[in-house]
Amino acid sequence: MIIEGSRILVLGANGVLGSYISELLQSKGAQILGTARSNQSSVTLNANFSERLILDLNDPVSIAAVASYLISSELPLDGVINAAGVVGFGTVEATSSQMAAMLMQVNHLGPAELVTQLLPVLKKSAEVGNTPIVVGITGVVAERAFPGMAAYVASKTAHAAWLSALALEIRRAKIRVLDAHPGHTETGLASRSVFGSAPKFPQGLTPEHVAQVIVTAIERDATSLTSADF
Ligand SMILES: NC(=O)c1ccc[n+]([C@@H]2O[C@H](COP(=O)([O-])OP(=O)(O)OC[C@H]3O[C@@H](n4cnc5c(N)ncnc54)[C@H](OP(=O)(O)O)[C@@H]3O)[C@@H](O)[C@H]2O)c1
User: Fold this and answer.
1) Domain boundaries in the chain?
2) Both ends of the chain: CA-CA distance in Å?
3) From the CB of 17, is ligand 1 less than 6 Å away?
4) Do residues 12 and 83 lie in contact, with contact meaning Cβ atoms separated by under 8 Å?
């Protein structure tokens, strides 16, 4: 994919991985449309982004508003990178169905709905000769389960499976899908869990490294990044 001149939507562009990925892509000439969850958190979005948007993946109205805004501009969209997400910790017995549903909504159903609604503008990018891409960062949990994280593992595994099916369906439209499986990364995500508290993890990957591997894979038209690739 030629990054120079591309127009890329980054969900969670104010998060740690989202910021590094956005800044790397921007340094290579991409226009970044970055999202944050709320008005309050949007102040941490990079002021140099082409557009700064509010998107709450837990709110179908917010998802529909962002999708219709992007579709109404009629401009091709060359990529959607989902660097948004939430984690929660606790045994199966200690996790309520409401908490599990929230993780499923933010980590899987919300981004799946947004990408589905944006397919017309991604197709437009392919029609004008670009190589649009949908990127997920489901993580190593898409490869194997960990105890005390069932709700998170379930939401990320669901999203990984959805991305695999999507890849098969949109291949003919020349839209690529890349799902990245980094292991634990030192972004502080675990300390911001929406329920429960994190176990002690061994030292993780650096976010700079994870972002660099993902951006290189985007440039090289890769369609998978396993945990071993990090
Ligand atoms: N860190 C790791 O070990 C690791 C490993 C593998 C995969 N991942 C995945 O990588 C992605 C980025 O994580 P990170 O480590 O960079 O964490 P982070 O710094 O906490 O970033 C999380 C991002 O998600 C956004 N977000 C949270 N709830 C949202 C909602 N309801 N609607 C829209 N956006 C929402 C946050 O926006 P606000 O700040 O505006 O709330 C923030 O931009 C996540 O999907 C995570 O699961 C992380």
Assistant:
1) 7-229
2) 20
3) yes
4) yes
Nearest atom in ligand 1 to 38's CA: 40
Topology, domain 7-229: Rossmann fold (3.40.50)
Ligand 1 site, residue 139, Cβ cutoff 6 A: yes
Share the mean pLDDT of the chain.
97
Tens of pLDDT, residues 70-97 = 999 889 999 999 999 999 999 999 999 9
Residue type, 117: Q
pTM: 0.98
- In terms of DSSP H, where are the helices of the chain? 16-27, 60-72, 97-104, 110-127, 150-170, 207-219
Total Cβ atoms within 10 A of residue 204? 15
Q: Is 58 in the pocket of ligand 1 (CB under 6 A)?
A: yes
**Residue 51: other Cβ atoms inside 10 A:** 16
Distance of CA 14 to the CA centre of its chain: 12
What distance in Å separates the CA atoms of residue 228 and residue 72, rounded to the nearest whole number?
40
Residue 159 CB-half CA count within 13 A: 36
Q: Which atom of ligand 1 is nearest to the CA of 156?
A: 47
Establish whether residue 83 lines the binding site of ligand 1, counting it when its CB lies within 6 angstroms of any ligand atom.
yes
DSSP 170: H
pLDDT digits (tens, 9 = 90+) for 161-215: 999 999 999 999 999 999 999 999 999 999 999 999 999 999 999 999 999 999 9
Place of tokens 């800044």: 23
